[in-house]
Amino acid sequence: MTQHSPLRAHLTRRGILQGGGALVVSFTAPATIAAAATATAARPKPLDPVQLDSYLVIHKNGSATLLFGKIDGGQGTDVGIAQIVAEELDLPADKVAVLMGDTALTVNQGGASGSFGIIWGGRAMRKVAAEARRFLLARAAERLGVPVEKLTVSDGVISVVDAPRKKIGYGQLIGGKFFNLPLKWNGKDGIQLDFTSDAPLKKPADYKVVGTSPKRRDVKPKVFAQPATYVSDIRLPGMLHARVIRPPVAGATANAVDETSIKSIPGARIVQQGGYIAVVAEKEWNAIRAAQALKVSWSQPAPAFVEPAQLYDHIRKAPVRERKVEKQVGNVDTAMAGATKVVEADYEWPFQSHASMGSAAAVAALKDGKLTVWTGTQKPHYAQQGVAHLLDMPLEQVHAVWVTGPGSYGRNDAGDAALEAAFLAKATGRPVRVQGMRAEGIQWDPKAPASVHHAKAGLDAAGKIVAYHFESKGFSRLEIDSNESDPAHSLIGQQWGLPLKPIQSFGVPDEDYQVPNRLMAWETIPPFLERVSPLRTSHQRDPVGPQIHFASESFIDELALAAKADPVEFRLRHLKGRDAAAVKAAAEKFGWQPRVAGPTGNSKADIVTGRGIAYAKRLGTIVVVAAEVEVDRRSGKVRAKRYAVAHDCGCVVNPALLHNTIEGNIVQATSRSLWEEVHFDPHKVTSVDWETYPILDITEAPEKIDIVLLDHRELPPTGAGEPSSRPVAGALANAIFDATGVRLRRAPFRPEALKGSFA
Amino acid sequence: MATKIHLVVDGKPHSLSVDDPNMPLLYALRDELGMANPHFGCGLAQCGACTVHVNGQATRSCVTPLSAVKDAKITTLAGLGTQDHPHPLQAAYVEEQVPQCGYCINGWIMTAAALLKSNPHPSDEEIRKGLSGLKCRCGTHMAIIRAVKRAAQMA
C-alpha cells in the first residue's frame, strides 16, 4: 500500500488522476515544499460535494483512491473505510488508497467526530462506491455488448458471466478520467454529509472484504520512523520556531513585556498582538530558552477558581445556565410515591485532561497571500475556517493539511496550535512551527467537564425499577466548541477579545433498561472564568459518557443491592434483545457466578478481590464491561486485574482493529477512573505534567482483557471509537464495592479515596 | 560562542556547532540533524517519547545535555532497524499492530530493545517493570506487552 507523504500539498485532484494508480508522492525535498504548499490553494473552485469525482478516483491500473474528508486517530478508520469501499467496488482492500483530511483534496466530512467515522463516513462512501460500480457496469455493458445482468465483477475486472474471456477492467473504462457523475447530495457538510442513492448495495451474506482484518497503513511509517509522519516533523525552509507565553495565573493579562530579558538569546524575538504573546527564534532550543527567560509583568486578578475541596459544592449551588429534560416517560413522582423501596445517591466526577502524549504542534506558511497550515487537529476543515476567520482571509486562500498528531481524543490543544501557527506565520512573514511545552497539553488544553449526578429510583415488591429519576449538573461539555471553526473558541481569539459564544450542552444516560416511569435531565453552570480559562471545557473522548455512566451504572448496582439481587440478574430483569445478549456474553466470558454484591470470604485480608459489571449504549453500540479488581486494604490502591468485554456495534468491519480500539478505550478509561483528576488552586491549574497528572502505568495495566465481538453483519455499523470508554468506571466502582463493601461515589478511585475506609 | 560537538548517530559521524552546549540532545537530533525521531513529549524525562540509545543505554534525550554525550554513539529508532532488516521489536510491533497515535513509540521500543539485550527472555512481570514509567496515552499497553513477548520469541 502506498503511503502518502503529508508534504503532498502540491497534489491536485487532476494530479491524482494522472498518477496512473501509483500515487506515490515521494518525499518532497524541503526546498520545493514552500512553493508546493500553495499550489493547491490556487484551485479555481472548492471541491463540489455533488460530484462523485470529489470522493473517488480510479487509476489506469484499476486501483482506486478515496478522497475522505475525515481523519484517523490511530484506530484504523481509513482501513475500515477502504474495506467498505472495496467491498462495493469488488476490489481487494489494498487496492483502495485513502487520502484524508486535506482541505484542498477532500470535501468537509467533519473530520474525526463522535465515533461517526465508520457509521456515517462509511455510509456515505459506501454509496459513492456503489454509484461508481453501477456506472462502470453500465459502461462495460455498452463496451462488451451485453446487458448489465450478464456481467460479474472480480478484483476490478468486469466480465461476461457465460463468456469470461469477454472482460474489461475499471482502469480501461475510467482510469485517469473523471466520472462527471452528479450524486444526490443531502446538502449537508461535516459528519452529516450523505447521499440518496438507489445503486444496488452488496448483500451482507456476500461480503468478502468487510469482516476481514487487513492491517493499518500508518503502523510501518511509525515503527520505522519515516520522515514527516507527525505534524511536529514538518519542516519548511526558513522556518521559525515559536513558543507561546501563557498567563501564570488564570485571568491575568500582560501589562508589560521586557524585550531586554531575551536579548542574549540568538535570534529570539517577541510577537505580540492583543494580549497574545509568543517568542520566535531560528533555533527551537533558543525559542524555548527565550520563553523561559522572557520577563512579563502580569496583572494580578482575583482568584478565578474555588478551593478544590469546594468544587462539587460549587457545582451544586451554582446558577443554572440551561436545563434540558432529555427523556421523560410516564409519571416518575406518582410511581416513586407508590414504590416499595426508594434508593437515592449522588456521584461526582472531576475535570480531566486530554493530556495527549505530546502537546500540540502546528506549522504554517504564508506565500503569495495564501496560507497553508499543517495541523494535527481532528477536524482540519474547521481549522481552515478558523484560520480564515482569525486572519480575515477568504476561505479559498487557506489550506489545512492534517498530519498525525500526538494523540487525538477530541478537542485537545491541537486547534489552538493551528490558529496560533497561522497567526505567527502571518505576523512574521516566515513559515512558523509552534509546539507546546508539556504544560500546554495538560494545564491549558480544553478539559472534560466536572459534574455531579443525582439518581433516585423506586423498586416494587418484585425488585423491579418502577420509577427512575437521573439528573446531571456540571460545566457545559461545549464551553469551547468541539471544533476550531470560530476563533471565539480558541485561546488566541479569546485573548484578542472576540465575543464569547459558549454552547450549553451535557447529556443523559444512554441505556435501554425497561422502566415504565423515568425522567432524565441535565443542567449546565457558568464557567469559573469566561475567557482564556485553563479550565474551559469541551469534548474529550466519549464526551460526558464516562462521568454519566459512572453514576448511572454505579446506581444500578446500588438498586440491585437494595433488591438483594445479583448485579447481572438485576440488569437482565430490565433488559431485552441485543442489550440482554451483551450482558450475558460479558458475564459468560468473565465466568460470573451469581450472588449479591459485597465482600465474601476473608474481607479483612490485606488484599481483597471483587467483581463488577456495567452496561451502556452509545449511538446504538452496546458495551458491557465485567471487571475484576484487587484492592490493597493497607494502601487503598486498586488494581484493575481483569476485564471481560462484550461489544456489539452492529456489523464488524475489521475485527482485529476493532479489538485494539476497544482495548485502548478500556485501558485509557481505566486510567481516567483510577487516577485522573485535574488539580487546581484558586489561581491556576496545578496539573502541569505527568507527576501532577498521573496516568496508568504499565505495571498497573490489566493482566488480561477478553473481548467478545457480537457481530451483526446484517446491521449497519454503529461506531466503536468511544463507546467502550463509558462503562469502565462503573464496572470498577461496582467491583470495588464487591471487594470491600465501600461504595465510591466520587472519581477517581485513588488510594487516598479508599485508604481511610478500612478500620 | 558556538561550541563544536561530535556525535555518531545511527552509524554516521556528525560535527555540530551549537549556541548552547547544555542544549538537550533531542534538539540536536531533530533540529540540527533533521531527524523525525525521537519526539518531544514532556521535556522532563517523565514520558520516554524522546528515548534513544547512548552507547547502548536507553536514555531520555530531552534532558541529556549535548555536553554529556560528546563523541557518544547514538542509536535512534530509525537506526534500530529498517523495513528490510527490522529489529525483532519493530517486526513484532507491525505484527501486533501496536501503536495507535504512536507518538510514544521511541520510548517503548528503545527501552524494550535495551531490556531484551540484557534479558532476552523476560517474564511478563519483568517486561512490565522494565518498561515502567513510560507513558502511552492511547492505552496500547496490552499490545505492547504482546509485542515484547513476541519479539523475545523471535530473537
Q: Layout of SSEs?
A:
The complex is a heterodimer of chains A (759) and B (155).
Chain A: H1 13-18, H2 30-37, E1 56-58, E2 64-68, H3 77-89, E3 96-100, H4 116-144, E4 151-154, E5 157-160, E6 163-169, H5 170-174, E7 184-185, E8 195-196, H6 219-223, E9 240-245, E10 254-258, E11 269-273, E12 276-281, H7 284-293, E13 295-298, H8 311-317, E14 322-329, H9 332-337, E15 341-349, E16 352-353, E17 361-367, E18 370-375, H10 380-391, E19 398-402, H11 414-428, E20 432-435, H12 438-442, E21 447-448, E22 451-459, E23 465-475, H13 491-495, E24 517-525, H14 545-562, H15 567-573, H16 577-590, E25 607-618, E26 621-632, E27 638-648, H17 655-674, E28 704-709, H18 728-740, H19 751-755
Parallel strand pairs in A: 2-3, 9-20, 18-19, 23-24, 27-28
Antiparallel strand pairs in A: 1-2, 4-5, 5-6, 7-8, 9-12, 10-13, 11-12, 14-24, 15-22, 16-21, 17-18, 17-20, 22-23, 25-26, 26-27
Helix pairs in contact in A: 3-4, 10-11, 14-18
Chain B: E1 3-9, E2 12-18, H1 25-32, E3 51-54, E4 57-60, E5 73-75, H2 77-80, H3 88-96, H4 105-118, H5 124-131, H6 141-154
Parallel strand pairs in B: 1-5
Antiparallel strand pairs in B: 1-2, 3-4, 3-5
Labels describing this entry:
heterodimer; A: 759 residues; alpha+beta; Aldehyde Oxidoreductase, domain 4; seven-stranded mixed beta sheet; five-stranded mixed beta sheet; 28 strands; 23% strand; globular; disordered N terminus; B: 155 residues; Ubiquitin-like (UB roll); DNA polymerase, domain 1; 6 helices
